[in-house]
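Troubleshooting: if your tokenizer reports a length mismatch, compare your output against this known-good record of 268 residues.
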Amino acid sequence: MALMFLLAIYFLLPIYFLIVAATKPQGDLASTNGLAFSHFNLFKNLSTLFSQSNGIFVQWAVNSVIYAVLGAVVGTLLSALCGYALAKFEFRGREFLFSVILGGVLVPTTALALPLFLLFSATGIVNTYLAVFLPSIVSPFGVYLARIFAAAAVPEELLEAARLDGADEFRTFFSVALKLMAPSLVTIFLFQFVAIWNNFFLPMVMLQKESLFPITLGLYEWNGQTSRVPLLQESVITGSLVSIVPVIIVFILLQRFWRTGLASGSLK
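Known-good structure output:
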């Protein structure tokens, strides 16, 4: 418990610093203790953030929601379909294919950014929403988790019963398997959502239009301008605080489901 308490402090300290810094006026950032509150200026900082550059931060937030929510939903569905097929269907090369997918887990996403850029450049979709959205819906780790969950949570007897009732494979999956896998798929959704929301390198490579930026890339661009426009520093800090709020909300709303999904392997 003592170790867990120290680790909790270690992980929460940056968030505490972010909250403290976001409440300070620009002049107090360098002149006061970084971990101590001073003049409460949070609401003015938020007003400045959302009005900065004609409200571009709102557009970045909308873009992040589009990338993360749609990407996580589609990515989770594709992972569920692939994992279910690998767990429940016998076909030649199944284990080899699964080994290739596991190998994909080991490949860092930054290593794929340049090949993806060359591919998307050849197809003409660089600097569009699709350039960030399409790579986000592919998750080897999600396929791996879905196969494990499908093998444990979907009994063969139920699938056989559905087929005997005349259901085809897609109807069997959506009517029977998907419902049994639902708590586990929330875990995959959360992994996907957080990974896409925090994604930075891929949008930086793919996007040039400021109106297409997610929050991560937009704040990075602002941070690079603080040497010329020091007042942007407070907006970067306040924007960073705002950017973690959706992730916290999603975890709180879905914690009952993803905790069930993580623990499903302990039940028979």
